[in-house]
Structure formats: C-alpha cells, structure tokens
Amino acid sequence: MPQDLPPAGGYGAVQYKRNLPARGFRPAVLLAGMLGICSYGFYKVGKGIREKNELAREKMWSRIHLIPLLTAEEDRDLVRRHLADQEREQKLLGSQTSPYNSDRFVRPTYATVPVSVTK
Q: How far apart are CA 58 and CA 67, in angstroms?
C-alpha cells in the first residue's frame, strides 16, 4: 500500500490567529494624552500655589497696616483705665497721691514669670 503524501503544492495555510481589529489608541497616543493631562494638572497646581502665596502676602501686609490702629486703640483703653484708677483713688483716699516721679502716662509693662520652669 503506497504511503499518503502531501499534495504537490503543499497543504493550505491553517489560520490559527484571530484577525481582530486593534481596540483603543496606540500606546504613543495614550502616553501623549497622559503627558498632556499631567502637564495641565501641574500648571493648575503651580497657579494655585502662586495664588496662595499672594493671599498670604496680602494677609501679612494687611496685618502690618493694622498694627498702628490696634496700638492706638490699646493706648486709648489703657489711658481710660488709668484715668478710671485715678478717679477711684481720688474717691477712696480723698487726695491724689502718686508713687511715681512724673504725672506723664507711661504704658505699664508687666513681666509674668512662671513659678517653676519645666524642661
């Protein structure tokens, strides 16, 4: 019995691959899109940081400009208290005695020291 041989031109190609279309974008396009999105995000973060610094600078300058007004208000309050103390002393003692060398108002300075220092 003769042996079976392949046909004269050979067998036809066997299709073992699936011919599916590529889904989605190519990797280079995805990388470019990701780079664009990240760049935009960093741009917005940078603008936000710059805005935050500008607001902090404005806040600091507004506080600096308020210091004279707050100092004047505190001085008026201290003078009012001082005059009220003098009036109270006048009512209690009947005369105005001063342990100080001058009648000029001087801002009181208090130094509070803790009883025990802990480290």
A: 14
